[in-house]
Automatic annotation (TrEMBL):
One of its GO terms (molecular function) is hydrolase activity, acting on carbon-nitrogen (but not peptide) bonds. Residues 1-24 form the signal peptide. Coiled coil: none annotated. It is found in: Secreted. This is Polysaccharide deacetylase family protein. GO terms for biological process: carbohydrate metabolic process.
Length: 308
């Protein structure tokens, strides 16, 4: 599939189907083998809890953390990982959706039940800047932290997921693929105003490349097209610095962590069980895809088992 060539033509952009983009997310690096009968949903995660809780909005700006007080890679890798969930589309399944596509489409009622489980279990949703402060300086996190993230920028994230999150006072991170901003059709995407609105409401906007090409294949100008230009575009839309990135397909390599760091990125998010980068663990933070097939209990088991 060559999105790059075709997407340069405006006509071709409208022909890019949702199926194409859904398939972009379908690397099987997810942790979906959790036995939903083996654990209790009431098991608490053993994340270190400080008596001082940090509410969203009170985290120091990472830019104010002096370079000298940032822990080394080994220390960062030794800290307990925070469970991080990755969602794509939040909508009912349609007849056309393939079985594998459904892994990336969480039906609204399932999403609602998963988020309710987090709230009922006492989880606090944290944002990328809070995770950065925790990993780099050991700054305290609220009890039972979790991070909720969304990739690609689908409109249903804004229209369906955000009201459910905000009902529980949860904020989330949204990683936007800029080629699709404002696209309408079978699978619509958020427009600029909606992205800005999320940023204004305290959610984090991050970058997810221009058109979802695999970062492992970038050469020369690709870093400008896929990273630098989309970053500037998102900064112009939100009026805020864009400091966090999610790898398309969850795929990455050491070179990509170096290139992102060089361009000022503080955090980059992959998927699943892959080991983090020894030198740049902050640029290879792990997430799991929260499947639409998962009950709240299965999701909880995966969170506990995948982030130790
Ligand atoms: Zn994606």
């Amino acid at each position: 599939m060559s999105i790059t060539k075709s997407a340069r033509l405006p006509l071709a952009i409208s022909l890019l189907t949702a199926a194409t983009l859904v398939s972009c997310s379908q690397t099987k690096e997810t942790s979906q083998t959790t036995d939903n009968k083996s654990d209790s949903a009431t098991v608490a995660t053993a994340i270190p809890v400080s008596s001082t809780t940090t509410e969203p909005g009170t985290t120091p700006d990472p830019a104010t953390i002096p370079a000298g007080s940032i822990a080394d890679a080994a220390t960062i890798l030794s800290r307990k990982q925070v469970p991080i969930l990755c969602y794509h589309q939040i909508r009912e399944w349609r007849a056309k959706d393939s079985k594998s596509a459904k892994d990336y489409i969480c039906p609204t009622s399932v999403f609602e039940a998963q988020i309710k489980m987090l709230a009922d279990s006492g989880y606090h949703a944290i944002l990328p800047d809070q995770l950065y402060a925790y990993l780099t300086t050991g700054a305290p996190l609220p009890p039972k932290p979790v991070m909720i993230t969304f990739d690609d920028g689908d409109l249903d994230q804004y229209e369906t997921a955000v009201p459910i999150l905000e009902k529980h006072n949860y904020k989330a991170a949204f990683f936007i693929m800029t080629v699709a901003i404002g696209r309408r059709g079978y699978q619509p995407y958020m427009d600029k105003q909606q992205i800005k609105d999320l940023a204004d409401r305290g959610h984090t906007i991050g970058c997810h490349t221009w058109d979802h090409h695999n970062v492992k294949k970038y050469q020369g100008q690709d870093w400008v097209t896929q990273i630098e230009e989309p970053t500037k575009k998102l900064e112009a839309i939100t009026g805020k610095p864009i400091k966090h990135f999610a790898y398309p397909f969850g795929l990455w390599n050491h070179e990509a962590t170096v290139e992102l760091k060089k361009r000022g990125y503080l955090g980059a998010y992959q998927l699943a069980e892959k080991k983090r980068d020894d030198e740049n663990p902050l640029l290879s933070v792990r997430r799991i895809i929260a499947s639409g097939y998962w009950s709240p209990r299965t999701l909880h088991n995966s969170m506990v088992n995948s982030f130790k």
